[in-house]
Amino acid sequence: MSTVVTIPAAGPLDSAWQSMTFPSYRPLLAVVGSVNAATGGRPVARLAVDGDTKPLGLALAEIGADGTTAELLSLFVTADARRRGVGTALVEALEGDLRAAGVERVEGVYMTGRPSIEALERIFARCGFDPPVLRKIVVRFTPEEAATTEWWRRARLPEGSEVFSWIDLKPEELEEIRRTQAESPWIDPDLEPWRCSDRFDPVSSVGLRRHGKVVGWVINHPIGPDLLCFTTSFVRRDLARRGAIFPLYRASIERLMGSGVTCTFVTSSQFESMMRFVLRRCAPFISFCGETRGVSKTLGSVPTSSA
Ligand SMILES: CC(C)(COP(=O)(O)OP(=O)(O)OC[C@H]1O[C@@H](n2cnc3c(N)ncnc32)[C@H](O)[C@@H]1OP(=O)(O)O)[C@@H](O)C(=O)NCCC(=O)NCCS
Question: Residues 186, 110: one domain?
Answer without folding.
Answer: no
